[in-house]
Each structure stands twice: as C-alpha cells, then as structure tokens.
C-alpha cells in the first residue's frame, strides 16, 4: 500500500517537474489518485503559474476545488475535471477571465454550477453524466461566447427541456427523453 502511494507521489512530482523545467503551458495530473490538489505544487510551480493554460485533473478522487487553485492558475483556458466527485465549484471561478472550456463530466453535480454562468469567455461546458435536473435558462441564454453545452446522461426535467431549446443560441446536447410508461 505504501509503495503504491509512494509511486503515485513520485509520478505527480515528475509531472510537475516536467512542466516547470520545460516551461510548458499545460499540467497533466490525470489518473493520479488525487483526493485534493497537493499544496506543495503551488510552491513548486510559483515561477510558471501565469504560463499554465491547460490543466487536467481528470479521473482522480477530488471532492472539491479550492479558491486558491483558481486564483493561482488565473490564466487557464482549459480545465479538465472529468471523473471526480465534485458537486460544487468555488465562486472564484468567475475570475478565470480566459477560460474557454471546462469538462465536468462524470462528477456529482445535482444542479448547474452557477459560477460557470458568470464566466463570459466560456465556449464549451461538458456536464455529461452528472445528476442535473434543472439549468438556469436565462443565464445560459445570455452567455454570448458559449458554443456547446453537453448535458447528456443527466435527468433534466421535461419542462426544462421545453424551455431551454428555443432560448439558447448554442449546441445543446441532451440524451433522448425516456418514454413515459403507459398506465
């Protein structure tokens, strides 16, 4: 058990060091079994955080994202948080003035993450396979940069489906409605 944990820590350290040494614009910590974003990474990456435009934390075990993460990586353009246990996002997400794409598929959201509606630069939101039943139609309709919203495999209520389609000027992906069983 400790050997596996040590290997996981070493893998994260290698990935962080590669990003810092090569001054790349992305950090890939997908599939690292992270339960939280390691605090030590903030210090290790302080010289390059402004240059990080893409982060993948997909397929980990994250239950939350901290405001410190959002304010540290303020130049993000793409954020992949798919396959975690997230159920809400910090309000500080609205300060990501360059964010164009966010992948929150396969998480635990029960409602549409409200901070997303205030990110004017967002073009793509992927919320496939969550537990979302309702979406803020008016707020979404006012998101001028939004091009695609994926809500497939969410239990979006029928009334919401009827309301949203005519109001949104972007691609809306929904799973087909399940037929109502006849009594």
Walk me through this protein's architecture.
The protein is α/β, with parallel strands linked by helices and 183 residues long. 26% of the residues lie in helices and 11% in strands. It is built from 5 helices and 7 strands. It has a 7-stranded parallel beta sheet with strand order 1-2-3-4-5-6-7. Helix 2 links the parallel strand 1 (26-28) and strand 2 (54-56). The model has no long low-confidence stretch (mean pLDDT 91).
Any chance you could write out the topology, listing elements then pairs?
Layout: H1 2-22, E1 26-28, H2 39-44, E2 54-56, H3 67-72, E3 78-80, E4 101-103, E5 124-126, H4 137-141, E6 148-150, H5 158-167, E7 171-173
Parallel strand pairs: 1-2, 2-3, 3-4, 4-5, 5-6, 6-7
Question: What are the main properties of this structure?
Answer:
7 strands, 5 helices, 11% strand, alpha/beta, 183 residues, 7-stranded parallel beta sheet
Proportion of helical residues: 25-40%
Major sheet: arrangement of strands: 1-2-3-4-5-6-7
Which percent range describes the beta-strand content?
Answer: 5-15%
Q: State the separation between the terminal residues, measured CA to CA.
A: 53 Å
Low-pLDDT sequence parts? none
Q: List the helices and strands in order.
A: HEHEHEEEHEHE
Largest sheet data? 7 strands, parallel
Q: State Rg.
A: 18 Å
The total of beta strands comes to: 7
- What count of helical segments does DSSP give? 5
Class derived from helix and strand content: alpha/beta
Average of pLDDT: 91
What form results from the Cα inertia axes?
A: globular
């Amino acid at each position: 058990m400790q050997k596996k944990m040590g290997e996981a820590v070493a893998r994260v350290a290698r990935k962080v060091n590669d990003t810092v040494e090569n001054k790349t614009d992305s950090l890939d910590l997908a599939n690292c079994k992270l339960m939280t974003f390691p605090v030590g990474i903030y210090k290790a990456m302080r010289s390059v955080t402004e240059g990080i435009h893409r982060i993948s934390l997909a397929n980990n075990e994250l239950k939350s994202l901290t405001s410190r993460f959002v304010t540290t990586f303020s130049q993000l353009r793409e954020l992949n948080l798919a396959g975690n246990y997230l159920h809400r996002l910090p309000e500080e997400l609205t300060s990501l003035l360059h964010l164009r794409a966010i992948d929150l598929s396969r998480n635990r959201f029960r409602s549409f993450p409200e901070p997303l509606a205030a990110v004017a630069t967002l073009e793509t939101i992927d919320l496939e396979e969550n537990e979302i039943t309702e979406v803020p139609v008016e707020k979404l309709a006012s998101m001028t940069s939004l091009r695609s919203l994926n809500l497939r495999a969410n239990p979006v209520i029928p009334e919401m489906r009827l309301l949203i389609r005519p109001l949104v000027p972007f691609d809306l992906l929904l799973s087909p409605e399940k037929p109502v069983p006849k009594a």
